[in-house]
Write a structure and sequence with these properties.
The complex is a heterodimer. Chain A is an all-alpha fold. Chain A has helices at about 5-30, 35-40, 60-85, 85-90, 90-110. Chain A has one domain: Up-down Bundle (Methane Monooxygenase Hydroxylase, Chain G, domain 1), CATH 1.20.58. Chain A is built from 5 helices and no strands. In chain A, helix 3 runs antiparallel to helix 5. Among the domains of chain B are: about 1-95, NADH-ubiquinone/plastoquinone oxidoreductase chain 6, subunit NuoJ (Four Helix Bundle (Hemerythrin (Met), subunit A)); about 140-175. Chain B is globular, with a radius of gyration of 22 Å. Classes of the chains: A mainly alpha, B mainly alpha.
Chain lengths: ~120, ~200
């Protein structure tokens, strides 16, 4: 558990840094509001107007999220596998190859059906 | 559910205090998830709840589970929930119609579930104790879990890959009606909003 003390210190330092900066900006910063300042920040491009009634996003985002979550789960299993690889030997290798191949079937299916193309 | 070593309820160790504090944070964030009027805020409070839960795992020296909690739940599940809010016609601002008529039923189910879980866990781990950080010889480390997972739990692990396969195929069947990339452009105008 002592391993996590530096992580905690780092987290406390970064949280403190953020808090202090917000505080300084609130106390010392000039407050001259104009239209451009009050607009939503969209990485420098002109903000897209929000559609009436909330609007919905394309369903393609759902596929992206599912792809991410599935391969996130796949990769998380690689870590304990790699950590205990020496003890498992060739049996572990076969297991992991089977696992990855099964998930890759889904990947190939999505790829062939054009799920990876955005438009 | 922390069962204290040698019945030392009077003088809890630092580890146990941290565990209880993290539990309080988890519980408070979970209550906020179900009471907030803004769906996006509910998802963000879920991040706090999941994060504090990961801290609980870490205190109980279940290292790998803790980081899986952070990566999968905080990283991926909450993103999926937020995408779900974006994809449906959920409002960004406060909602007034979040409470249905099912509130009494929900209370009954929640109390029953809590009762079952507390009974089972307290009964199952009555004599167990949280290993102190110094004494635990990496019982929750990636190496130990990996050895157990890939030696004793082979079939569930391989079944999981089929589950992931089904999830991905389900996702594309739900989100794409088209067959090939060539037809995608032709039908795009009609198929965009539905689904």
């Amino acid at each position: 558990m002592e391993l996590y003390v530096p992580i905690l210190v780092l987290a406390a330092l970064s949280a403190g840094f953020a808090a202090v900066n917000l505080l300084i900006a609130a106390v010392a910063g000039p407050k001259r509001y104009n239209r451009a300042k009050l607009e939503a920040y969209e990485c420098g491009i002109e903000p897209t107007p929000q559609p009436v009634g909330g609007g919905r996003f394309p369903i393609k985002y759902y596929l992206t999220a599912m792809l991410f979550i599935v391969f996130d789960i796949e990769i998380i299993f690689l870590y304990p596998w790699a950590a205990s690889f020496d003890r498992l030997g060739i049996f572990g290798l076969v297991e992991m190859v089977l696992f990855i191949v099964t998930v890759l079937v889904a990947y190939v299916y999505i790829w062939r059906r054009g799920g990876l193309e955005w438009d | 559910m922390t069962v204290l070593a040698e019945g030392s309820y009077a003088s809890p160790t630092g580890q146990e205090i941290v565990f209880v504090l993290l539990g309080v944070v988890t519980l408070a964030a979970a209550v906020l998830v179900v009471t907030t009027r803004r769906l996006v805020h509910a998802a963000l409070w879920l991040v706090v709840a999941f994060g504090a839960l990961a801290g609980c795992y870490l205190v109980m020296s279940a290292e790998l589970v803790a980081w899986v909690q952070v990566l999968i739940y905080v990283g991926a599940v909450v993103v999926l929930l937020l995408f779900g809010i974006m994809l449906t016609r959920a409002p960004i601002g406060p909602s007034t119609d979040l409470d249905g008529a099912n509130r009494p039923a929900a209370v009954v189910v929640a109390v029953a579930l809590a009762g079952v879980l507390v009974t089972v866990i307290v009964d199952g781990f009555r004599t167990a104790y949280v290993p102190s950080a110094r004494a635990s010889s990496g019982a929750g480390s990636a190496e130990t879990i990996g050895a157990a997972l890939f030696r004793d739990w082979v079939l569930p692990f391989e079944a999981l890959s089929v589950l992931l396969l089904a999830a991905l195929i389900g996702a594309i069947v739900l989100s794409r009606r088209e067959i090939g990339p060539a037809e995608t452009d032709a039908r795009r105008g009609g198929g965009e909003g539905e689904g």
